[in-house]
Specification:
Elements (H helix, E strand, L loop, with lengths): L3 H21 L9 E2 L9 H6 L1 H12 L2 E6 L2 E6 L5 H7 L4 E2 H13 L3 H4 L2 H15 L2 H19 L9 E5 H18 L5 H13 L1 H5 L8 H19 L1 H5 L3 H10 L9 H16 L2 H13 L2 H13 L1 E2 L4 E2 L1 H6 L1 H14 E9 L3 E6 L5 E2 L2 E2 L1 E6 L4 E5 L1 H4 L47 H18 E5 L6 E2 L6 E3 L1 E2 L4 E6 L6
Parallel strand pairs: 1-2, 3-13
Antiparallel strand pairs: 2-3, 4-8, 5-18, 6-7, 8-13, 8-16, 9-12, 10-11, 14-18, 15-17
Helix pairs in contact: 7-14, 8-9, 8-21, 9-16, 10-12, 12-15, 16-19, 16-21
């Protein structure tokens, strides 16, 4: 047993060493401003982890478009320069590596096996397959058709939902309905929606605890929910009978798993990867569709205008809508873009692979004499770069009244008025950027517009509670934000559809 005479001096030496190290921490030369906090080792970890939104926004105002925070022994440089800085991080892949960032994320959040997590060739093959299908108009037309058919079946008079009138909590209503329709349209009608839904919600609601590596003892329910999701997903996707009668997307991904050069056959391999696909196609687009519907319902004048659009694009002979026209309509697209701008709080992270220089624009005079007016900042190997979308999405210089949802903000006549610098700034980044830009962005648009069209087609809607606000703490940097309170809406079925 170590004696007190030895232990106390050793602890004193460690404490003094930590204090000296912390005292000497500072930015040097042309390094970004360093915010190290007052606590040795922890630095600004408490502010960064408990209330990051206002903390980082204030630093942007006081320190500029680049600064470094010291968090629990790690330096993370935040870049929010929408003119030059973020573009460099997205395009210089050899210096700012996305691979290391996603390797960490895939391991901590989705529990990738090492066989997949450290095989970039395989992951690239899977990503290529996803992008190929989700960027193909004809293939997306099939997915969109299936999505509409399934979603409509949830609302029609034979479904048993709201035969006359019913008050629904819109977040849970939209979350389940769109989750189910989207999952079955992507993975096939036999996808186990009911068996997975409750546990998947438990995983999704606790995602930040997995990313922060919160010990199991502090979140046993979340860890157990994720374990059950992984078990069920693994059993479903490894079953060849399921994939044979499934969608082209699922068949293509399964084919990559079974190629001779990869040949992954373990249930755990399937489970981790397809949990990440579930997350990529559900955990942001589904709540975005909720917010889209919420904001439209909460704006009576705009809702009336959209109802008129829906009627306009109904084709009586076909008893269906001109969906291509709806998905391309300027007002509907503007509402979607504004919803993503306000509610999507996405972090693009990169690992710095070698010492480098990053050029940051002068925010007051970004161009002089036709040339970029920038300042060089040195960043170091081993540190991380973070780019968080709200730091530009909520900037009043780019978007006047940034915290107000304005459905018509992105209409052409409001360019330069409600959405500024659209030509010269990269200030709209809900999907990230570079080679890892979210491939599901077109699917998210389809889901949001499909839901708002069918809900307004079948029902009169009347809010019976105040519109919710965004919960900024809860999921900051991790995706589309959730509402701070329930939003109850009275659905009254129309005696006949609008047309």
């Amino acid at each position: 047993m170590v004696s007190t005479a030895i232990l106390l001096p050793a602890l004193a030496i460690l404490l003094v060493s930590a204090l000296l190290f912390h005292t000497q921490l500072r930015s040097k030369g042309s390094e970004p401003p360093l915010i190290k906090g007052y606590l040795p080792f922890l630095g600004v970890a408490i502010n960064f982890l408990t209330d990051p939104g206002p903390f980082l926004a204030k630093l942007r105002q006081t320190k500029g478009w680049i600064y470094t925070v010291y968090v629990a022994g790690r330096k993370m440089t935040v870049v929010s320069d929408p003119i030059y800085g973020m573009k460099q991080v997205w395009t210089q892949g050899r210096v700012f590596s996305a691979l290391d960032f996603f390797t960490f994320l895939n391991k901590q959040l989705f529990v990738y096996t090492d066989a997949i997590n450290y095989n970039p060739a395989f992951q690239n093959a899977l990503r290529t397959c996803v992008v190929k299908i989700l960027s193909d108009k004809s293939k997306m037309a099939v997915i969109g058709h299936d999505l509409r058919q399934i979603y409509r079946s949830f609302l029609d008079e034979k479904s048993g939902f709201c035969e006359d009138s019913e008050v629904v909590e819109l977040y849970q209503f939209g979350r389940y309905k769109m989750y189910a329709a989207s999952a079955m349209s992507l993975f096939g009608p036999s996808f186990p929606v009911e068996e997975l839904y409750r546990d998947y919600v438990g995983f999704e609601d606790n995602m930040m605890t997995f990313i922060r590596q919160t010990p199991y003892i502090f979140n046993p329910a979340g860890y157990k929910a994720r374990a059950r999701v992984l078990d069920r997903l693994g059993k479903f996707f490894i079953d060849q009978n399921q994939s044979e009668n499934s969608t082209e997307l699922l068949r293509g991904l399964i084919a990559e798993f079974t190629k001779p050069e990869f040949s992954y056959t373990n249930q755990e391999d399937f489970a981790g990867y397809f949990l990440s696909i579930m997350f990529a196609t559900k955990s942001n687009s589904v709540p975005a569709a909720f917010w889209y519907l919420t904001y439209v319902i909460g704006d009576p004048e705009l809702k009336t205008e959209i109802v008129e659009l829906i009627v306009k694009h109904y084709i009586k002979d076909k008893k269906d809508f001109d969906w291509d026209a709806l998905y391309a309509d300027q007002l509907l697209v503007s509402c979607f873009k504004e919803t993503a701008r306000l509610t999507a709080n996405i972090t693009s992270g990169r690992y710095i692979t070698r010492d480098a220089v990053i050029k940051i624009a002068d925010p007051l005079h970004p161009v002089e004499s036709g040339k970029p007016n920038t300042k060089d900042y040195y960043v170091h190997k081993g540190d991380s770069i973070l780019m968080i979308s709200n730091l530009v999405h909520w900037d009043p210089e780019a978007y006047p009244k940034p915290m107000k949802w304005i459905g018509k903000r992105f209409l052409p006549e409001n360019d330069g008025v409600l959405a500024k610098h659209t030509e010269e700034w990269r200030s709209y980044v809900p999907w990230g950027g570079g080679g890892h830009m979210c491939p599901g962005r077109s699917l998210a648009l389809i889901e949001a517009i499909t839901q708002v069209v069918y809900v307004l087609w079948y029902f009169e809607t009347e809010p019976v509670s105040e519109l919710p606000e965004l919960v900024i703490k809860d999921k900051y940097g991790g995706g589309v934000l959730r509402p701070d309170r329930p939003f109850n809406v009275k659905f009254t079925r129309r005696s006949s559809p609008l047309a």
